Structure formats: C-alpha cells, structure tokens
Amino acid sequence: MGCRVDHANGNIEYDNRTVHVRALPIGIPFNQFQLLAIKAPRVMKDERVVLGVDRLDYTKGLVQRIKAFERLLECHPEHLGRVVLMQIAVPSRTDVKEYKALKEEIDQLVGRINGRFSTADWSPIRYIYGCISQDKLAAFYRDSAVALVTPLRDGMNLVAKEFVACQINENGVLILSPFAGAGGTMREALLVNPYEIDMVAETIHKALVMDVDERRHRMQLLRKRESSMDVDYWMDSFLREMDQVECAITGPPSLIPVDHGYQSYLTEYIEDSTKLNLLLDYDGTLAPIVSHPDLAMMSAETRRVLTHLSQMPCVSVCVMSGRSLDNLRQMVGIEGITYAASQGLEILHPDGSRFIHPVPTDHQIRLQNLLPALEGEVCTNGAWVENKGALLTYHYRALSSTTSPERRDSLVQRAAELFREHGFYPHHTQMAIEARPPVPWDKGRASLYIMRTTYGVDWPQRVGGPERVRILYAGDDDTDEEVMQALNGLACTFRVSRVPVYKSSANYRLTDPDAVQSLLRLIEDKLDQRAVIPSSPTSSFTANFFITCIHESETVTSDEEQTDLSASDAQLKSKRRRRNSRNSTMVLSKVAAAGLLRSNSFKAALCHHSQDPITREGVGIHASVDSIFKPSVEFPEPSL
Q1: By the 8 A CB rule, do 191 and 174 touch?
Q2: How is residue 638 annotated by DSSP?
Q3: By C-alpha distance, which of 390, 394, 294, 407 is closest to 345?
Q4: Which value, to the nearest 10 degrees, does the dihedral of the CA atoms of residues 604, 610, 614, 617 take?
Q5: Of 153, 152, 156, nearest in space to 64 by CA
Q6: DSSP 8-state class, residue 152
C-alpha cells in the first residue's frame, strides 16, 4: 500500500493521517465467574468430564472434536466407562440451511458413537443442544477434568478464560486451539491443531493422565494471569493507550525497500562448477516467528525445496537453531541433512555421527536452580521458560500484548538479573533471554566445525580453489551474526528482518521467511539448469551422454558418428583433467528429463549426431519421457 510504518511505536501513516495500532486482548469479569463457581451446586456425577461449550457454528470445529473423542476411545480403551464428553451447543442461525445441515451431521455423529460404545450404565457423549443458565455453566466449568476449546477459526474465545476463572479447585486442564485469540497468551494450556484428529485425541489422553502437581501448576499460572488481566484491566489499558498515543509520525520511515540486487550476484556466485553449502537458521528464517515455538512450522513449499536441494549431489544443507536436537529434527523433518541444535552445542551429521560439546559438570545444577527462580518471579502475563537441556530460555514475547511497556521492561530487567545471580550471562535473542553454558562455543564456531568436517581442514582454500565451494547463510537474530562474522569474506550472508539492520555483518537483507523461500527457489532453479545442455553440442557433454538418455533400443551405428563421439570424449576428458575434478554420478530425474527434451540445445546436439530432426515424437525420440529416460540411468555429472 506504500504506507510509512513506524514499527517501534506501532504507527502507520496513510492518506495524510496517522493510524495507531495496539494489541489489547479483552478480559472477563474474573471475580464474578469465580463467585458463581463457589456458590453453584454440583450437577455432575463422579465421572471425569471433557467439556465443550460452543455456539453451533462450523468455525467451532465440533465435528472434528467429536471425531477426536471417538479416536481417543479407540486408541485408549482404558477410558471406556470412566470418561464422558459433555458437549453444549448453543443454537445459532437456525434458519440458515448450512447450519441446519451441520446440526444434522452432529446429531448423526453423536448417535453413531453412542450406539457403538454405550453400555447399560454409561454413554460416551452427552450432547446438550440449547442454552443453559450461568449458574449451571459455572458448575460445569468447575467440575470438568478437561475443557476442549478447539475452534478451527475464532476471535478471542472467552470460554477458555471462563473455564479458568471457575476452576477454583485448580484440577482442570485446558486444551486450546492456536487459532483462537486466547492461544496467544494462555501458554500453560495444551495447544493442539484441531485439524489433526489423532493429535487432538492424544492431547486429551495426556490431559486425562496428567499428574496432579502439573495440573495444578498450569492452572495456578493461568488463573493468576486471568485474574490480573480481567475486563477492568482491559478497559484501563485501552484508555491509557488512548492517552499516550502520539498524533503524528516524525522522522524518516522505519521500513526501507529490500535490496534485490543479490539475484544477479547469486547467479554469478553459484556456477555450474561449484559445490554449495547452505547454512540456514530455523525460527524467523525458514519458519515464521509465532507466539509459541511449537507453532513455528515451515511451509510445505519450503520443505519441498529444501528436500530437493538436499538430494542434489553438489549441495550440503545444514539447519541451525537454539532448539534441542530432537525438537529441531521433528520440526524440520528432512533426512540426509546436518542439524546443529542448542546454538551449535549438538550437531547431527547426515551419516548419523554426532558432535556434543562438553559443558561443565555444575552447569545442569545451576540451570535447575535458575528455572524455579524465573518461574516464581517473572513468569507472568504469558511469559514462560523453556528448558532445552543444555540451554534454558526465558520467553517474554507475550508481554508485548498483555502488559504495559513499563511493566514489560521491568520483568525483562529482573529476568536478566536472575540470570546473572545464578552465574549466567543473559544472551538476548528475539523476545527471549537465553542461558548458555560457559564454554567458548557458539553458532559461528559451530559453522566452522561443520565446514571442516564436510570439506576437510583445508576448506578455506577450496572456497577459492578449483572446487570452488560456495557458502550461503541466512538468519534473523544476533546469534546468527556470530555465523556471519565467522564466515565473513567466505560466504554470501543474508539477514532476515523487516526493518533495516544497520550494524549487521550480512551482505543482503530479506524481509521474512517467504523471501527466504524465494531465495531457495532461485537457487533450486539455478542448480536445475545444470541439467540443460549448453548451446554447443560438443562443449561440455559427450554424445555418449545423449545416447545413454535415449531408450535402449536407440543405437548409433554410423562410423562418422562414432568418430564424433570419440573426439567429444577426448575434449571432455581434457577439461576434467584441467579442472582436477573427481568422478561422480548422478541420476536423471523425470523433471530434468523433461527439461532436456524442451531444450533447443539438447535437440541441436542430438541432431548433430543423428542428422534427423529431433522432436518429442520425432525420428530421434519415438517414446514418451517415461520410456525414454529410465529412472535408474546413471551418467557422469556435467563439468565437475
């Protein structure tokens, strides 16, 4: 839209006016619901209840929820006769055809499941279609073991907050969809994707078998936050922001256009005769920064491109992160690449070998002492602590939307003091503070170790030598600057940021993970072009290669052609000797085969040897791509 954006102050200048953007999540009358829960009589039996309270709407995910409960009973029969799903569906838009169809589908689904699992004294689902009083609703909230708030798409969804307010016994567990607004702040809930039926079923099982101490700890933190950030707090923060807002944006805009000049540079940097090493950060680079690390998912297209690149014989891929090794492998999910986790302290190579940097023996003891100190003093209003094994991270991203700037700064400052008091230097990352072991090791040193183990101790000479190894790195925070500085002058580096980074060591800037995906696709296209034949039929590929790609029934018998083959072979072998390259093989995929068939230079090369017009259905090629190019055909890698 061409707007001037002030990211630091949350202002947008558009059409000669200034728009102020603030995140002010609404609260509920917490004390009122708590009082209702105290006074309400018990309305349920001793069975453990999984509660759902929703308006009958297709966005609430009721069908998926009921199917997930059915899957729970299938996979965990120990819950039969002991657990029930209480689903309260408030009528909505009853005169709309689609809503009538939804009600009929739910009625049939509930009837089928009850008919399948019911016994003489127990039915798995209790379905209430109608409105109930607030007193009864508070009793349901109070006495339920689990609350399922799993909409497919929603606003804030205050049901989750009402459930927490009524949990005066602090025994319940909240299961929450990340697609509800409440999922951004209620971090102690169990987050689950409502579209994943099996995952929802396993999450319900986890909530049902969770030990009492963990249930109470999670609920105490939830209740503490919701009681302090109730509807009165929301109203006060709204009025306070209106008083504090500035009326104009002054100075130059914070956002500058991204420099796309790297494309022409990259074309020259990645040449046909290079080996390429891709070093990529995960959070904020391959996946977007979100409210919780478990929700940071790579796009399907990024995963496809990375998988394709990792399968190329001339490409090595490494994903680096501060996550634990197991979690990083789970989030990326690509085999045959290098994983550098815990800021490089743990490295898993494609062959399965591991590197683990040693840490002091008292490191874990100090981490165990730091964890409760952080949870007791600064884990409030959505801030939380993540234990990664060798690392410990205090996340305070949620504070930006749940507290005032002054309160947020105070909590972050106190967290940093706690880090120092327990013998840790507070490493600041994006909306987080990290405790690392006191060892001379970081992502920069880890990147050098990876290059040395991949290409040998003389890898810096290979960067400018005959093998011409090329290195690309992309990252989004200060830990990635460590890699950029370590590889300064040896790699092409990218800083991922929507705002200009004036002190970055990177060569170029990318705006977000979508821009990183575009970069990877550009690299993929450049490397795929290696399969396309050069314009001169005898410059790089031999006619033997051309004929190898033809169906085995196609043969060359002409003496003149055989002479041409020999001459071309000699020319290629001479080039290979001059380039000092080792022999290797690669498999021609159908995609590459199709590209070759479309290439005019490929047709010209075949014409040179067969003296026949070459078309897809012509004399030189009589069959389809599937029959012409055999999947297992191997041929010398071009110009290596």
Answers
A1: no
A2: T
A3: 390
A4: -160
A5: 152
A6: S
pLDDT digits (tens, 9 = 90+) for 116-173: 999 998 999 999 999 888 889 999 999 999 999 999 988 888 999 999 999 999 999 9
Strand (E) or helix (H) holding 252? none
**CB contact at 8 A, 526 and 470:** no
Q: Could you tell me the two tokens for 86?
A: 């209480």
Residue 531 has what DSSP assignment?
G
What are the CA-CA distances from residue 286 to residues 302, 346, 477, 517 (Å)? 7, 19, 13, 7
The identity of residue 234, as a single letter, is: W
Which DSSP letter does residue 283 get?
A: B
Would you state the structure tokens that stand for residue 286, as one six-digit string?
């391959």
**pTM metric for this prediction:** 0.48
Tokens of 187: 């971090």
Rounded to whole angstroms, what are the CA distances from 63 to 135, 152, 176, 194, 583? Answer: 27, 11, 16, 10, 58
Distance CA 382, CA 400 (A): 10
Q: Mind listing the pLDDT tens digit for each residue in 333-343? A: 999 999 999 88
Q: How confident is the model at residue 360 (pLDDT cuts 50, 70, 90)?
A: confident
Determine the 3-state secondary structure of 119 from DSSP.
strand
d(CA 7, CA 255): 8
Structure tokens at 465: 């030598």
